[in-house]
Amino acid sequence: MKVLMFGWEFPPHITGGLGTACFGLTKGLLHQGVEVIFVVPKAYGDENQDAVRLVNASDVSIDMRNSIYKDYWENISYIEVGSNLIPYASPEEFYNILNHTQLRGSENYESVLSKSYEFSGKYGQNLMEEVQRYALVASTLAANNNFDVIHAHDWLTYPAGIAAKKVSNKPLIIHVHATEFDRSGENINQNVYDIERFGMENADIIIAVSNLTRNIIIERYGISPEKVITVHNAVEPSSRSDFHFEEKHVREKIVTFLGRITFQKGPDYFVEAAYKILQKDPNVRFVMAGSGDMLNKMIRRVAQLRISNKFHFTGFLDGENVDRMFSMSDVYVMPSVSEPFGISPLEAMRSNVPVVISKQSGVSEVLKYALKIDFWDIDAMSDAIYGLLHYDALSRMFIKYGKTEVDNMKWDNSAKLVKEVYIKVLS
Predict the structure, then answer these.
(1) Which residues have a Cβ under 8 Å from the Cβ of 365 and sit 6 or more positions away?
(2) Out of 73, 110, 204, 362, which could bridge 341 as a Cys pair, Cβ 3.0 to 4.6 Å?
(3) For the whole prediction, is pTM greater than 0.90?
């Protein structure tokens, strides 16, 4: 079985859990005998291709004389983005939609339709230009490759998946790692929602990363329950036998938040919980690792609470630096307001770090050995963190059984379920 798969990022060049999930899933699919052609906007040459054949969309030329592109282009709108955007985060400004007629004479139109196009692979001002060009590349690849099914990850690749389906008449599976309601709450961007819904309506089957996400797809996008299947994420096994290798250089216990510093991740609740804990025990340090549109607000709030001497902002961490941060941590906290799944707690538990997670997360559906709280309940959050810091027997239990629990959450198991989806859609 061969799959044409579309994703916006692939390790080591990632901004969040999406690329990590794609990597783990493709490795698992290889073990299930599934061949994957994975298409990214921009390949850097250092990606691990042991499990996939990575296609760099920047290397694909477009012949606009071919009728397949004309048919595709006549049926899309072009969306110009006026702000930086990443797959999970809400945009800071509304989009300006330019219809096909307006676009005809624009530089962007000529750029998208040019024979050659260099993708940035970033989430910046030209994002939607790249999304539409990526869809045209999908048409080319679908017309010139043999495959059985199409698999598109998250909304940035839905237009590509639909274009490939129209050209090949092969079934389309979309994989929902997050929705606009996760990114923006009730203040959704209508244009992103419309792209998501259009992708869901055109898909033959939808894979959701949790039952939480599945319910959102059914209730907020009006999709039939029979069409939506839950396949939980997993975590890559680690080759390191002992994660506690990094010297802390401080005597205090360390509590870590690691993720995008945005509304969705609940960083403000983490700061307030930190303040409550420090009122009872000043011998604790708090780390907020990541970047995002709420970073400056969090820095100001920490200063207002006069806890700056116990609070550290590291900026974005990746790869080995994430492992180093976990190795120094005594507790990991994920207080997400809405988390479709959440791979980072699994990575922390794999590193022998006990975790506190919000009940409003998909990963809470599958974890037994994690302390679960409502994201808004700062008292419960601070009590959970305090308990893990001060009751050694509690901490040791969660470390021991949590590590075993996570070690059994393998991408091979998730990939087996995804392969069953492929077989179902082909039958």
Answers:
(1) 210, 211, 212, 232
(2) 362
(3) no
